[in-house]
Amino acid sequence: MSKKTIAWAKVYGEDEGAFEFSLAGKRFIVVCKHAFAAELLAQRPFKLRRGASTRESVPFEGLFMAEGDQWRQDKRIVGPAFSHKHINEYLASIKCVAERLVDVLASPAGGEEARTVEVRHVMYCVTADVIAFTAFGHDFDSLRRCCPVLDALKQLFPIIMLRALSPVQYWKLPLFGQRLDGCEQVVTRLTRAVDHIIEERRAVDAAQSEQGREPPFTVLRKMLERSAAEPAKFEHRRVVGNLLTLFVAGADTTSIAMTWMLYHVAKDAALQRELAAEVTPLDMALLSMEELSCSLPRLRSLFYECLRMHGPAPTFKFQNEFEDVTLAGRTYAPDPSRVFLVMAGYISQAAEAEQLGVGPEPDKFEARRWLQPDGSVRSPPADVVMPFGQGVRLCPGKDLAMLECLVCVGRVLQVFALALTPGHSEVGSQTHFTEQPDRDVNVVFTPRTGKKE
After folding, report:
1. How far is CA 281 from CA 228, 284, 394, 413, 453, in A?
2. Spatial contact of 193 and 148, defined as CB atoms under 8 Å apart
3. Which of 29, 154, 301, 396 is the residue whose CA sits 20 to 30 A from 377?
4. Which residues contact 421 (CB under 8 A, 6 or more apart)?
């Protein structure tokens, strides 16, 4: 569906900037020009919302799928946890996970032996472990041992995808609907696991308080404080739902970004040499968030370009359930059969993107695109390149995602030379719950001589 819509955009939307089609009783209005996308997205988050069917495909409640007043309440709790102050506090945990990653990628035999690794699974464990530290103050250590929570989450992703694409909300059928896809059982296991972690965290925080020590800041601690102060507005189920949302929306998307970064590094020897030269002199264990960001312009440029060309959400899907929406001089009254599709990924790669700040040949991947002549790096225009959403609905975890990628990929480059396995196929994209590589990404990691320990 995603590839077909892009093909139609090139044929029918290039001149007008939008086109319409009907499918399964729905009327889709597809926006594929920057000006129309900006006009439509300016009406988020109250006039234009995710449709009920999309929201209800996710079997728990949290910030990512929240709308209206509920979104405001969740944002006040979750948003501050990702301020620069707190992200700097999380940096030690990210560095800890990065060191574990280096150990896992090394050959069990040690020495200079190379090791081949399918990186998608490993990167997912990396991002899940970081989120477990920051959200719960809990060490999953899924890089080195089995983690039941992650196993359950991996079962949940295809279920959510199946529900999101289903023309019928089969899970609402009386008596047996919830059992058709196994979702009820998976969510029950996840909820029990999260409840157990919450009780453990409460006990640890209470013990530290009794000893006169300030418990470490975590997203969970902030949520529990809010839930205790306003139990009617922030119920326990929303605490659990928001924690699960962090994994669903955070671990998957950030791990995909890291996978694409490693793929392009392994594929492009010249790029790899430049990045290795950039990271090798750094003692990453000593650098702050700001110092890391300033010291790694080439790695940041690669990160930005991977998000532009391989963004986790290339299409935004909205409906106007309660209020009129305006677009290109027309007013659209609320209609549950109408769906607005904003082709965010297509817009950032279309010809007009060159004049909107993306630069020459926007349809091509260019890892150095965001480098300035003086060697610094510029950020992509936020209203053109939108991997983390746009405006007030910008993902609060975007800076944490970048920091994870810089630290983990940078540390890997300090220790290993990367190459794709011989005869590796070109990697494309496919849509599941998010946009992701369409095949395994197998990378050979060879220890560098004189590597930085």
Report:
1. 48, 9, 34, 12, 11
2. yes
3. 396
4. 116, 442, 443, 444
CA distance 403 to 401: 5
Task: Summarize pLDDT for 379-427 with one digit per residue, the tens.
Answer: 999 999 988 887 778 888 899 999 999 999 999 999 999 999 999 999 9
Is 206 part of any domain? yes
Per DSSP, the three-state class of 196 is helix
Range(s) of the domain holding residue 132 = 2-447
Closest of 303, 405, 391, 300 to residue 344, by C-alpha: 391
* Residues 34, 40: Cα–Cα separation, whole Å: 10
DSSP-derived letter for residue 371 is: B
What's the token pair of residue 49? Answer: 């919302």
Residues 324-370: tens digit of each pLDDT: 999 988 999 999 889 999 999 999 999 999 999 999 999 999 999 99
Tokens 């746009």 label which residue?
390
Q: Does the pLDDT of residue 217 top 90, yes or no?
A: no
Count of domains forming the chain: 1
Amino acid at 83: S
**In 296-376, beta strands by DSSP E:** 316-318, 325-327, 330-332, 338-342
Q: Is residue 452 part of a domain?
A: no
Strand locations in 233-350, DSSP E? 316-318, 325-327, 330-332, 338-342
DSSP 258-270: HHHHHHHHHH-HH
- Whether 242 maps to a domain, the answer reads yes
User: Could you count the other beta carbons within 10 Å of the beta carbon of residue 16?
Assistant: 11
Alpha-carbon separation of residue 318 from 39, 73, 245, 321 (angstroms): 13, 21, 19, 9
For position 328, which CATH number holds?
A: 1.10.630.10
- Rounded to whole angstroms, the Cα distance separating 239 from 422 reads 47
The phi and psi torsions of 452 (rounded to 5 degrees) equal -85, 110
Write the DSSP symbol of residue 49: B
Examine residue 437 and state whether it is found in any structural domain, yes or no. yes
Q: Which residues of 99-136 are buried (b: 16+ CB within 10 A; e: fewer)?
A: bbbbebbbeeeeeeeebebebbbbbbbbbbbbbbbbbb
- pLDDT for 80 equals 80
